[in-house]
């Protein structure tokens, strides 16, 4: 499955100054890693955000979200945010910051 290049480019610009961030393509998506841990990604037209298991329930109560289910099984601690819910840079930045904060809480790889 292809991913939304425009959304990926917006994420790149937002994370451009962070030396801990790298990019990796996987499973037809693109992910942005912080210190080797996945933080956010783009799959299809959706933003994938790693919020962690403790924050997933609250994140899923926000508009445009649903569980990340790539293989028929929900991914624990991950959510998908509809591309239409992150058209504004402020909304996208908030989700990116949330994913990066969770990734930063993990030991570097």
Automatic annotation (TrEMBL):
It holds the Pfam family TfoX_N. Residues 17-101 form the TfoX N-terminal domain. This is TfoX/Sxy family protein. The lineage of its organism: Bacteria, Bacillati, Actinomycetota, Actinomycetes, Kitasatosporales.
């Amino acid at each position: 499955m292809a991913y939304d290049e425009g959304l990926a480019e917006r994420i790149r610009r937002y994370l451009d100054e962070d030396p801990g961030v790298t990019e990796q393509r996987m499973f037809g998506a693109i992910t942005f890693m912080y210190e080797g841990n996945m933080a956010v990604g783009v799959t299809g037209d959706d933003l994938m955000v790693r919020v962690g298991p403790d924050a997933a329930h609250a994140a899923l109560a926000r508009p445009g979200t649903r569980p990340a289910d790539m293989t028929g099984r929900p991914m624990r601690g991950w959510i998908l945010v509809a591309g239409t819910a992150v058209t504004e840079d402020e909304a996208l930045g908030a989700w990116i910051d949330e994913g990066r904060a969770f990734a930063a809480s993990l030991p570097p790889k």
